[in-house]
Structures are given as C-alpha cells and as structure tokens.
Design brief:
2 copies of one chain form a homodimer.
Chain A (H helix, E strand, L loop, with lengths): L6 E12 L2 E8 L9 E2 L2 E3 L6 H13 L7 E8 L10 E9 L15 E5 L12 H18 L13 H12 L5 H10 L4 E8 L7 E6 L13
Parallel strand pairs in A: 1-6
Antiparallel strand pairs in A: 1-2, 1-4, 2-3, 2-7, 5-6, 8-9
Chain A binds a DNA duplex (27 and 27 nucleotides) through α4.
InterPro entries (chains A, B): Nudix_hydrolase, NUDIX_hydrolase-like_dom_sf, NUDIX_hydrolase_CS, NUDIX_hydrolase_dom, WH-like_DNA-bd_sf, WH_DNA-bd_sf, WHD_NrtR
GO molecular function (chains A, B): hydrolase activity
Keywords (chains A, B): Hydrolase
Amino acid sequence: MDFEPLGLAADLVILTVRDGRLQVLLIRRGIAPYQGRWALPGGFVRPDEDLETTARRELAEETGLSSERIHLEQVATYGAPDRDPRGRVVSVAYLALVPDLPAPVAGSDAASAHWVEVAEVDAGRLAFDHHRILADGVERARAKLEYSPLATAFCPPEFTISELRGVYEAVWGTPLDPRNFHRKVTKTADFVVPAGGTTTRDGGRPAQLFHRGTATTLHPPMTRA
Amino acid sequence: MDFEPLGLAADLVILTVRDGRLQVLLIRRGIAPYQGRWALPGGFVRPDEDLETTARRELAEETGLSSERIHLEQVATYGAPDRDPRGRVVSVAYLALVPDLPAPVAGSDAASAHWVEVAEVDAGRLAFDHHRILADGVERARAKLEYSPLATAFCPPEFTISELRGVYEAVWGTPLDPRNFHRKVTKTADFVVPAGGTTTRDGGRPAQLFHRGTATTLHPPMTRA
DNA sequence: AAAATAGTGTCTATCAGACAATATTTT
DNA sequence: AAAATATTGTCTGATAGACACTATTTT
C-alpha cells in the first residue's frame, strides 16, 4: 500500500497539583515552528512503537518518571490538515497525572520544561492547537475526579484525607467542606483504605494516612458544587 | 520533514436500537486481509481531509445519513504496530448514534452492510482489532447515557418517554421502572420538552410526544441499576 | 370487559450539604 | 491559651426505588 506523507505524534498533558494549584508541564520551544512559544511536551511515534509507549517514553524524558504506576490515558486525536505548518501531522494526546515531584523536573529536555499554573496559561500563547488539547485534557481530569478514584494519582502512595481534598479543590477550583468530604470519601466503598500510620505534616491534629483502594469507579460519585 | 510510511484510517461504531435491541452496523469484508470476516465500516483519511470529515463521509456512504445532526464523536485511536498486516495503519475510531432507520441501509457499500445485535457479535469474528474498538464504543455509549441526553440521538425527532426508556433498556440491557423513569426524565432540567402532540403508536393510552431539550449534561444523572 | 400502556401519588431509606461539637497537635 | 487541622455527629431537604392507583386507549 502506498500512503500519503503523514507524521504521527504523541503529545502530553502532564498535570500535577503544587501549592494547592493545578499545574501543567510546558516546554519552551527552541526551534521553528513556533520557536520561543510554550508547547506541550511530545514527540513523534517511532516505527514499531505503540502509541502509549511513545507517550510513556516522552513522559520519562520530561519528568524522569518512568514508573508504570503513573496514570496515563489517551484523551483524543487531533488531525486538522493545517494544524502543523511543516505538513500533515496527526497528534494523539495523552493525559498524565503525577504527584507533586520531590525532585525538580529532570531529563534531557529539562532545561526548557516548567510547571505552569493551568489557570494562568493564556489561550494565544501556546504553539499549534495545544491550547485546545490542554483544555480537553483538563476537562477530562475534572470530569473523571467525579466518578473515578483518579484524584489519588496526584497523591504520593500514602496521603491524608485533607491532601486528597486539596487535589479536588485544585482541580475543580472550588472549596469543599472538609467534614462532608471526609465522610464521603471514607464511606465510598474501596476508594481509600487506612494505611495504619498518621502524620502531622499538614499541621494540627495528626491525620490518618491512607492509600488508594481497589475501586475503579466511585459509588456514589463525588459531586462538584 | 520525512515521515515513516503510515496509513491513517477512521473506523466507525455505528449504533442503533432496533426491535428493542442494541445493534451495530458491520460490513462483510470482500477483500484481503480478513476477507469474508465482519468488520466495522471505515476508510482512509484523504489528504487535506479532517478526521471527522472522513468519519462523516464514511457514515454517509454506509447509511445514507449525511445530516450534520447525526451524533458523531471520537472515541479513541488505535495504533499497535502490528494491528494491520498491510503495514502500519493507525485508526481513529468514531461513535455514531442513529435512529432506527425508516429506509434500509443504503449507499455504495450497502450490499455488504448489515445490522448485527451487539450482544451476539462474538469476539473472534471481527477483523483487525475491531472487537476492541466495538467494545470501547459500546462502553462509551453506555456511560454517556448516564450523564448526557445522548439517548435522544437514537430517537426520531419526536418521541415518547417510553420510547426513550426503550433506548436505555436496550443499551444498558436492564429493565427500568416505567413510572420512576417517567418522573426522572420529565423532572431533569431541559432533558426533554413537550412537543405538543400525542401518539398511540406504542399502544394503550396516548402518550405525549417530546423532543430533545437544550441540556448537554443531565443534572441529576440517570442511574444504572 | 379485558388488556395494554401512560402518568400521578405515596412511602421509605439514603444521601448531600450545612454546621455544631470534640480531639489532638503546634505555636 | 490560642490557632490549626482532624474527625464525629446531628439535622434537614432532596432523591431513588418500590409500588398503589388512576387515566385513556385498542381489542
């Protein structure tokens, strides 16, 4: 079969919660097109490489996180004929949720990679159609917090209920009642399970530590205000 | 830029509800690979053609439905290196929901197109990775019925509450209480609006006709048993 | 009249949201 | 002691699900 010339890329919306805010990893483009503009990390799919493999490779290159335990899911594919001035490039977008990294961003492209608060990314500043991809990725994350235990993907292996609440508040941009949240989370079957210890890292009375449970869907779902 | 040889296709999961059952449009492949096997309709993306344009073109070719009002949404992209024996072909899958067609399937490829009950499609019978694509498409439809007014996409412009309930029952495979369903649907803001008339096409007491409302998300959502 | 479907009303257990009260830490 | 956070409990209004009952058609 003969194929039209076509490039296939995987781009990543890598989200984390730092300082109580939802942040996305952006890179400053060093080369044309869109030189000097912010862009989502990504790269071309290699021959014989699966799409998710490409995404995980790029994730590791940009963050140093190579664990299979990092949450990564496909969001959508963007293929408008004119979305890349270099020619026809179709991009498969992935959403990655990572905990607040103890180590700073590391890896080969690290020099140009920065965490940027999602609320402060402005529409015209991103290369290609990356603003649209970012918006779709963020919306996916917001929606999935409701009915999946995905919020735990932003947390370290052991976390407190209030840290988990901080994730919801940052992603949704809404304050939640600590008391109702606590009750809801601990009563939702298999959402979180007690890890045994306590911590005072959040100040005040020691909080119980939890780790994520086995649930894949939350019954009942968490509700946005 | 030079690109690796690569094909880009759009494949369609076209669902409808006929005779109270969820059905999918499949075609019998006339040529290799997988000659004689059932497959999802689809085709290659043309140069300068947007992905959704390809999907709508294929939809029109297979069903004769060219209206922009047909619900069509992207589901996921499949790109395992060995998924097509002809070479590297990446497929963007779309989900289309169509009403029970008054006219039989028509169009250029119609000769080989048939409605098949989803519950009776068996895993090994489909070409390529189409069983996986079908499963993902059906799961998407099932999930979206809960929190979106998507069920109306299976209905004609004017429908009764019990016809809408029939859609839910067919897609979810669960019987629903007609009385609670009626109350729930009519009380959910902007889900359906009265069209004015009534019909006795379902037998019994005349039922009010409705058409779809302006809601894009259902508050509260419909709940699966 | 009998059967079929449409639609309304009622009851109960559960849940979301508001918020009081108590517990245990650091400053 | 004061401030901060954690956790439990209580109250109220809304809702889901079960199901009795009434309404309007066809057979």
